[in-house]
Amino acid sequence: MNSGQANDEEDGATFPTSDSRAKRPLVHYLYWSHFLSRWGDRMWEFAVGLLMITVWPDSLLLTAIYGLTEAASVAVFGVLVGNWVDRTPRLKVVQISLGLQNGSVIIAGLALGFLLAHRTSLPGGLKTLAALSVLVNVCGAISALAGLATDIVVERDWVVVISQQQSPGLLTQLNSVMRRIDLSCKLVAPVFIGFLMSSVSSVACALSIALWNLLSVGVEYKLLHSLYWSIPALQQGGPSRDLSLDSAALELVDLNLQNSFDEDIPLVDGEKNHSNSRGGIASRCLHLPYFQGWTDYFQQEVMLAGVALALLYFTVLSFGSLMTATLNWRGVPAYVLGLARGVAAIVGILATIVYPILQPMLHTVRTGLWSICIQWSLLSIAATSTFIRSGSAASVMLIVGVAASRFGLWMFDLSVTQLMQDSIPEEKRGVVFGVQNSLQSIMEMLSYVMAIIISDPKKFRIPVLMSYCSVGLAALLYAYYSYRVRGHLFHLDKLLRYLD
């Protein structure tokens, strides 16, 4: 990049053009579309549990089933979604995923609005409740998978393509700003939803979310459409996007033909080669898109870092439903929990500001190592709280430790994301990130299973310590990855000189 281009940078982003000033808003198209998407996601994420429990006030069953359905859909089908993203033109992925995601939330919002408006005298009784609850869960699963496709193609693919042949820090800047937008929405959207539900009604909340998705989807697509046609590199898909039948499919066809011949060749007097048949079946299974996706994932050099990130999802040490419910049971007021959640989000936003400063100095791998160590060290405060007899002191330590650890968590998330973006080939970017999201959903589901098995709030110390050990294991895995890449964990010669 020459000095003229460098002078035209805005927020670290410029694009090759004869008129730089005309192209400056392009990066803001990305940011605004991300805001529209994340604001809707965070409103729905926070509201759906509250709306479900309002429909059936005496049970958490509807809320739990919805959460499990959403997580399970990503865990099972995330690989296939990623594979589809790799084999589909970029703009078509955006068209389909945005339509499905927003359309499913609109339907689910209208269904919940109907249930809430008629909850005292629901036509059809339990049958209608069951049917509409199933509809909401199906729409939630579709929304989660469509949202995953949008995240992969925009956040994991487009930003890499946009940053190529630009300033070295552009990818870091784009990742940080988009994560900052996400955390800001996570901070403000629940406040807005809470105000709407308390000052107006639950029905108005459900219908408002449906209306937001109806109005925002066109604007979001228009922004991404303009960005796509303004950047030629986005229009140049990899080989897997250009061919209707990719190499994996061709190899599968070849294996099918080969094994069909092998199975018909007699060895002695009419006996068939059953071992070859069994081997052929195994080979065909391994080349199915689902299994091929996992194979591709574990062949990546950055795989250990991805597994370390996924381990962080096996946790109750976050301001999710499990920890907040336990703290509320201990007597911590709801407003304190809301304030703590807000502080944790602000700490996360601070991490997205610090990361672009540290990354150029420490480089991505070392920044990730420092980040996971910071997170684990700060969570030691939360782990220590399990040995404190005073209930109020233990609750304060748990809240402080978890909130402070968000600084290391989000810097580590940014580090691993950038490592994967930099190292994964374009033609496998979708499927590998699909596997990554599936792995994270599996870990999240396991944390719910752990909470179900150890459901007594008095024994919450056990899930806390298990979560702390999971973060420790993640730190060890990432340290091993860092050692393999860099050849050392720290500069021993510099340390010895410092000690002397």
From TrEMBL:
<feature type="transmembrane region" description="Helical">
    <location>
        <begin position="187"/>
        <end position="215"/>
    </location>
</feature>
<feature type="transmembrane region" description="Helical">
    <location>
        <begin position="334"/>
        <end position="357"/>
    </location>
</feature>
<keyword id="KW-0472">Membrane</keyword>
<feature type="transmembrane region" description="Helical">
    <location>
        <begin position="465"/>
        <end position="483"/>
    </location>
</feature>
<protein>
    <recommendedName>
        <fullName>Solute carrier family 40 member</fullName>
    </recommendedName>
</protein>
<dbReference type="InterPro" id="IPR009716">
    <property type="entry name" value="Ferroportin-1"/>
</dbReference>
<feature type="transmembrane region" description="Helical">
    <location>
        <begin position="93"/>
        <end position="117"/>
    </location>
</feature>
<feature type="transmembrane region" description="Helical">
    <location>
        <begin position="302"/>
        <end position="322"/>
    </location>
</feature>
<dbReference type="GO" id="GO:0016020">
    <property type="term" value="C:membrane"/>
</dbReference>
<keyword id="KW-0813">Transport</keyword>
<feature type="transmembrane region" description="Helical">
    <location>
        <begin position="395"/>
        <end position="412"/>
    </location>
</feature>
<keyword id="KW-1133">Transmembrane helix</keyword>
<feature type="transmembrane region" description="Helical">
    <location>
        <begin position="129"/>
        <end position="149"/>
    </location>
</feature>
<dbReference type="Pfam" id="PF06963">
    <property type="entry name" value="FPN1"/>
</dbReference>
<dbReference type="GO" id="GO:0005381">
    <property type="term" value="F:iron ion transmembrane transporter activity"/>
</dbReference>
<keyword id="KW-0812">Transmembrane</keyword>
<feature type="transmembrane region" description="Helical">
    <location>
        <begin position="60"/>
        <end position="81"/>
    </location>
</feature>
<comment type="function">
    <text>May be involved in iron transport and iron homeostasis.</text>
</comment>
<comment type="similarity">
    <text>Belongs to the ferroportin (FP) (TC 2.A.100) family. SLC40A subfamily.</text>
</comment>
<keyword id="KW-0406">Ion transport</keyword>
<dbReference type="InterPro" id="IPR036259">
    <property type="entry name" value="MFS_trans_sf"/>
</dbReference>
